[in-house]
Sequence to fold (388 residues):
Amino acid sequence: MTQLVLRPGEQRRLVRGEDTVYAAQVQDIRGELVPGQAADLLDAAGNFVGRGLVGGSSKALLRLLTRSREDIDRAFFERRLRRAVEYRRRLGETECCRLVFGDADGLPGLTVDKFGPVLSLQTLTAGMDQRKELLCDLLEELLHPDAIYERNDVKVREKEGLAQQKGLLRGALPGELLVRENGFLLKVDVAGGQKTGSYLDQRENHAALAPYVRGRRVLDVCCCTGGFGLHAAGYGAAHVTAVDVSAAALREAQQNYARNGLFQADFVKADMFDLLRGFERQGRKFDVVVLDPPAFCKNKSALQKAFAGYREVNSRALRLLQSGGMLVTCSCSHYMTPDLFWEMLCLAAQDAGVRLRLVEQRMQSRDHPVTLGNPQSLYLKCFFLEVL
Fold:
């Protein structure tokens, strides 16, 4: 088997829990590197560190799968998938959840989401992509889905030398796919929806709104197909203003509200920066403002500009709240770390001239688990803040 030998000291980061080995960390390669094939990782003294799959054309030479000398075969993937499924079952997640979350489930490069009877699958590395048929076989044996749909239409695959593609892998999609999230009925489009069909990582944060919205006026910025605002309406909000830049998303949101008999809402197509500036000029006030924007920074070089953008939208949102009002604010970029996000919020509060009380500090739902030593797995921040 091909062996990669680390430079002195480089094994410490991997021992702490990270799984990706980059070219700059390796001092010697013994054998041929074949994308997707298994290889062993040794420290500088020749001691075994782990075993993984060779990367494609990206800077990542190896993704570790195990710290033992076990075979990476069909039985290996069956054990990992079964363990991932059992974890979600213990959480009580059976209808709508993330079944496999890459590194956090010991399967770097693989994402599997469950939307009722349909599975949505992403294989973002050469190793996982080459085993796509095997993974589908195992998922069918474990879960008996009606369909498995491939959502590999993401640019990150190109770094691995993999083409973007999507399509049906197994079974047949239903004419309309409806699932329940926290008891609310939602339509999911696995073929054309955001990410793998819908956002699952905010599910527990949506439910956390319940104590804070009854009888209150809510502004839901970047509402997508319902999200926070739909839950707020369902939990008794007096009125919801749902905002998104996408007309298609707003149409889906309006339909999802109607499916649940929720009609105390209006829907506004607008850019979030323009809308917040306009509402501030008009003197509009709300009891709860939710900010759930897409990632402002998808690479480290964009962090400074993203920080300024987050600061602006949060300070403007705070100006729309009176004493006792609540800001629910999120960031899904792992480059915007919890400490940086906290720093930004302190500056935004200073800009808005308000004092804030932290009510809840939250993260992604438990079906998107975080592994210690792998800071990128904690990517979603969600703060509930009250204006004093």
User: Anything to note?
Assistant: The chain is about 30% helix and 30% strand. The longest strand covers residues 321-331. The CA atoms of residues 101 and 111 lie 5 Å apart.
